[in-house]
Amino acid sequence: MCGIAGVISASVDAVGRENAVARMIRRQRHRGPDDDGLASVGHATLGMGRLAIIDPARGHQPMRTERFTLVFNGAIYNYRELKAELAAGGWHFQTDCDTEVLLAAYARHGAACLPRLRGMFALAVWDAQEQTLFAARDAHGIKPLYYARLPQGGIILASELNGLLASGLVEADFDPAAVGEYLARFSVPAPRTLYTGLLNLPPGHTLRVDSRGRLATRAWWHLPPPHSPTQRAGSYPDFVRGLRAQLEDTIRAHRVADVPVGAFLSGGMDSSGVVGLMMHSGATKLKTFSVIFDEPEFSEQSAAQFAARAFGSEHHEFRLTGRRVADDLPRIIASFDQPTGDGINTFYASQAAHEGGVKVALSGLGGDELFGGYPSFQQLPQLASFLPWWRRLPEKIRARIVAALRARPGARARKLADFLWAARDLHELASLQRRVLPETTRLALLSPDARALAMRLGPHYPLLDDFVADLLGADEFQIISAWELRTYMADVLLRDSDVFSMAHSLELRVPFVDRVLLEWLWPQSAFYKSGSRQPKRALADALADILPPEIRRRPKRGFALPFAHWMRAELRPFLDDVFSAASLARCPYLDGPAVRRLWADFLSRGDPRAWSRIWTVAMLVALANRPVRSTG
User: Fold this and answer.
1) Which domain range does residue 199 map to?
2) Distinct helix (H) and strand (E) counts, the chain
3) Is the pTM of this model over 0.90?
4) I need a labelling partner for 257 at 20 to 30 A (CA). Which of 268, 358, 375, 619 fits?
């Protein structure tokens, strides 16, 4: 795991490029504190900071051949199999590191090596012969890669936007359209970022810059065909057996490391399944980690302790209080490069793992998206079946109903209003599903210019048409699964998991978010994947001999934090300062009085479910008030 950086420009001399890359690596030092390096070849300079996981002594980067120079962030889990294949083809390996295997695979196959890789990665390769840069992200976007065109010609890239900004070669100007997107979804969907001109390479995409400086991106991975008769299980027992084999396979792959590997454990089925499979595959002295609270209605302490006892893991708890969050806020805000209303739990679970002596931890993230664990899998098809009838009503009647719903207190009625106002089919419902703020509230919080831009762009996810085209022929379960995977998971969960785990120099792996597992699972019958009365039934049945009945039968409980209480207590001084007139003045794309009214309404009305919407806005304002040019 690393933080990578690079400057490719014929207009910036080698000294200027190397100074800029060195600043970026220093700013990303938390991503790779074990080693660092940079190399200049032609008009390219690439650098890295390394977290040594596989072959710690010999995996120094950049790694080079006479023609290619590579920097790489991530882990290739099938590197041993690839190494054997490449060695048989004549490559003489000097290390037992996945980085050299990746370099050899690219030297042999070029971009065609990507479908052969099982893992999470963001990579950049300079080709000295053709004078071109090639970069890529893994299929799901587990590892990030940001880039920007340089005003003087060329391109700059890094693992974090903070890295790009530390280079001194690009500016940090908020994009008003991105501010509107963030208020809608906790995030700014790729390829846009919060900053004008700084771009996020989308998941499953490549980037190429040729010798004339022309830049092009393209998708190297797509979801599999929705129905493949040759891969579909013929019965539910066959499906469960096949799923068990796939789960064991992905856990074996994700345990590959030359350092201790632990796991996050909340006591729910997903994290418990990962821990149980790790123990089943031979893990010994496994350390597990969870975050607990003094507020019993939020804490999953007893469930996590029960699971740890059942599996015999060495369990570590991190007790999180509002006072602790308040004290740590400057560090938390400094760690993210775009604002987020989520991820605090990952920040502290990662800190617990780091302090507990592991450099790699496995997480249960992705189980809900693959096996129908979210309410959206039941609710959206029901609402979609109602839409044709709804659309037959006269427009004036529909408008009155929507207006009445928007006038009701509470987010649920307003979200239903947005669905009825803007959605025509299941895809458009899924496009709106993960919105945080009701549309009327979002628009009210934006300044007049930003509001006009948001109204022009509309309420739907920016890539709606692309997603619809990719999902032709998909069933309802696949459509919702794809939307959850490509929006909330990719834009929020995976992004926050990367940022907040790397803040503690921890490599966080997500075995459910595995291309091989997904490609097997995708064409299987929706009836097999999730029972309508028992979400994630298939996962429970596939792990029946590993998970105790108490875990398999426990109702799903969404992870929640006691923020509604803390925001009126320990976090109140911070929020009062963030929502002050002076602070809001430094966020010109927001309407300051409207934001202050939102905060005042939360304090007076006391709806605890509204805390995430307030916190989402607070993180945006806090970032606008944060110095951005720190070189770390």
Assistant:
1) 2-219
2) 29, 17
3) yes
4) 268
